Amino acid sequence: xxxxxxxxxxxxxxxxxxxxxxxxxxxxxxxxxxxxxxxxxxxxxxxxxxxxxxxxxxxxxxxxxxxxxxxxxxxxxxxxxxxxxxxxxxxxxxxxxxxxxxxxxxxxxxxxxxxxxxxxxxxxxxxxxxxxxxxxxxxxxxxxxxxxxxxxxxxxxxxxxxxxxxxxxxxxxxxxxxxxxxxxxxxxxxxxxxxxxxxxxxxxxxxxxxxxxxxxxxxxxxxxxxxxxxxxxxxxxxxxxxxxxxxxxxxxxxxxxxxxxxxxxxxxxxxxxxxxxxxxxxxxxxxxxxxxxxxxxxxxxxxxxxxxxxxxxxxxxxxxxxxxxxxxxxxxxxxxxxxxxxxxxxxxxxxxxx
Length: 354
What we know:
mainly beta, Immunoglobulin-like, six-stranded mixed β-sheet, 3 helices, 47% strand
């Protein structure tokens, strides 16, 4: 009979004689590897609200642009920073110190690693173009701007209209910089206005993007004379409406009211960024005459609708009258039946009114 010490030595001898390949292939098991992988790629418990930007301070002076973003992180996470176009190469500061904890995602978005807590991220660099667009990947409730020699679009009451701010130099005749980088595409918009003249005069306005195809757009659309918007939550400023289209938004529309008038003028202001289309659909209660601009041929589907495609600076004068009924007895016709029988040499027709 073996004693315990001899038994242990015998077991160790047997184990050491087993093939090493068997031990290597059996551990760790496949299910354990999958569990470890799921733990590594598991999103934090706070997802998708781990980041909470509180404020952004933007300053641009001559050719220097500075973005300062205050953000709170509920967990250690990679935070996307604002995208500036055309291409911009800023210096990155995390809490006032240079940081190299940044990477780029598969879709090209720059990310910076932040720990749990409140942080201040600063981007600072030179711009060489006459226009700059800043896209914020996260909603920022409070945005302040200090600019010298630049005009801003897309900011109202310290809030971004579409997570995008556009800056352009106020000196339009400034000498172009010697650079190979292309300037951003200026927005080009189609504005279709349909006037319906009935008991009330209404305008249906539809704003559609032409260019750029996949980029956010902030632009001012002139309102017509005495136009009062009744639908959509839009901001107006100096007889213009501020329109914002996000990257994947093709169009935006709203409805307005007009006061009926005997004489009314439609005008396409001199703005090469807008392609205007006007339609007038008048009910039988109005007699309409126009001058100043010829209309496009009417379609068979809408014979009562007139279409105009004005160029910048052109006007259309509308003269409307409300026909007055002739005094005297009236008759009401409920229905009309017309029968027509064609023949080889003659035709026969009759009608019956009720």
